[in-house]
Amino acid sequence: MTGNARPTLDRALALSRELLAAAAIADMPAIERLDADRFRLLQSLRSERERFSAGDWTVMKEISELNDRTVGLVEHLRRGMERSMDLAAVGRRAVAAYSDTRL
């Protein structure tokens, strides 16, 4: 690849690793910030794709794999939150159903 694109690609890879680490600890504000930063970097490389070397495509593949793992973790977190919310709703309904019952 020519020009300044390789440092940008390397930074996008580093951000992808940081994203995965943030997802592993459920740091949603960091996930949002890192993903936005990485998105801007990857968008800036769109016009460079035709000049990517094999090594550049290898880095892109690693970014993609890290992204897939991050998405999987975030989806797992989302499902866990949904289960917690469902359980809380069941509890609220139970309290409401029995709140008028007195001994």
How would you describe the overall organization of this protein?
- By secondary structure, the chain is mostly helical.
- It has three helices and no strands.
- The chain has one domain.
- It is rod-shaped.
- The model has no long low-confidence stretch (mean pLDDT 89).
Which secondary structure elements does this structure contain, and how are they paired or packed?
Blueprint: H1 5-24, H2 28-44, H3 54-98
Helix pairs in contact: 1-2, 1-3
Q: Supply the number of structural domains.
A: 1
Largest sheet: none
**DSSP helical segment count:** 3
Please provide the count of β strands: 0
Radius of gyration based on Cα positions = 21 Å
**Uncertain regions: pLDDT < 50 for 5+ in a row?**
none
Sheet-strand content, in percent, reads under 5%
Morphology: rod-shaped
Order of helices and strands: HHH
What is the residue-averaged pLDDT? 89
What is the percent of helical residues? over 70%
Q: N-to-C terminal Cα separation, in Å?
A: 78 Å
Structural class: mainly alpha
Task: List descriptors.
103 residues, rod-shaped, mainly alpha
